[in-house]
Amino acid sequence: MKRKAVYKVVAALLAVLIMAGDASLAVQAGNYYPGYRNSYDALSVPTQIEKIGDTYYLVDSYHNQVLYSKGAGVNAKDWKVMASDLSQPHAIAGDGVIYMVVDTENHRVVTYAKMDEGYQELQAIGGVGVRPHYIEYDVTTGKFYVWSSMTGEMYIFRRNANSLEVVLEKVQRVPELYGKYVRSFTIEGNMIHFPCVHASMILTVNKNNFRVIARNPVPLNMAGMVQVTRIQNYYYLTVSTDINFDQNAATIVRARSLADFGKGNYENINKLFGGDGAPYYIEAFDGSYYATVLRVKSKPCVYKFDVINDVITNVQEAAK
């Protein structure tokens, strides 16, 4: 039997097993990815590196794929392909059972299951706002939060109990952010922070009802924010452009409070991460932090670093 035919049979079997186990498991199996090596010599606009369970995932956005590895290898070909058939994906999250990817330019999310070898596509859920950029699995609620970057909407999904099926539970709206570019969000306790480009402001809402509880402006040269991340006693802010989308303004800064950014009370730490390129998402796992930086091929685009008593240390290249 030819290889492609084998994969089709595996996909069909998975669908049958799902149906046989429980009617609520009725998801349509799609593409099967058997663990091919990444064919590219370098990454192209990697937006996020994340670890779920014992596996590392790297979103290789402009190659329209998500990669995986048991070890966060430095070279692009150290990784295998978890999923392709995507259009500039930006982020991934998982609950240990299913994995959800934001397929940004297709305005949808796609879910996958891990097989003995490779990954099986389960669901492709369309109509998730406009250009969804970021996703987080919130352990405290057991739900997936997906942000539509241009409509001010948070799509909240849950996985049905004892199932591989994901359903949309509700959509929470922040009217003040409608039509304004927001690349990410950060859940901090009962708050969610949104770095809003067009408003040049970090907007904070109540996690339960999404009512605005704080507005913290930032300078116009830092308006093109990507993500705000709390690490120990500082907020780290990755900046891709200024208010006019000039990438020469790209940087990473940190401040003691969100209000300090607008007051100019912040520290520029961009030189620690190469001093050029456009910093994107920062994630935490393995007791360290990982920052992706969008830059030309052949140069490092993922950095690993530690923070000890608010001192940044052990900065090293993690992928390129």
Question: What keyword list fits this structure?
Answer:
25 strands, 2 helices, mainly beta, 320 residues, 48% strand, five-stranded antiparallel sheet
How would you portray this structure in words?
The protein has 320 residues and is mainly beta. 8% of the residues lie in helices and 48% in strands. It has two helices and 25 strands. It has helices at residues 3-21, 258-263; strands at 32-33, 46-52, 55-60, 65-69, 80-83, 91-94, 98-103, 108-114, 119-126, 132-138, 143-148, 153-159, 166-173, 186-188, 191-196, 201-206, 212-217, 224-231, 234-241, 251-255, 267-268, 278-285, 288-294, 302-308, 311-319. The strands form six sheets. It has a five-stranded antiparallel beta sheet with strand order 1-9-8-7-6. It has a four-stranded antiparallel beta sheet with strand order 2-3-4-5, with no helix packed on it. Strands 10-11-12-13 form a four-stranded antiparallel beta sheet, with no helix packed on it. β10 (132-138) and β11 form a beta hairpin. The protein is globular, with a radius of gyration of 19 Å. Residues 1-13 and 15-26 have low confidence and may be disordered.
- Which consecutive residue ranges, at least 5 long each, have pLDDT under 50? 1-13, 15-26
Largest sheet, described in full?
5 strands, antiparallel
Ends: how far apart? 37 Å
* Radius of gyration from CA coordinates: 19 Å
Strand order of the largest sheet: 1-9-8-7-6
Q: How large is the share of residues in beta strands?
A: over 45%
What integer is the average pLDDT? 90
Shape: globular
**Secondary-structure element pattern, one letter each:** HEEEEEEEEEEEEEEEEEEEEHEEEEE
Number of helices, counting only DSSP H or I runs of 4 residues or more: 2
- Alpha-beta content class: mainly beta
In helices, the fraction of residues equals under 10%
Number of E strands: 25
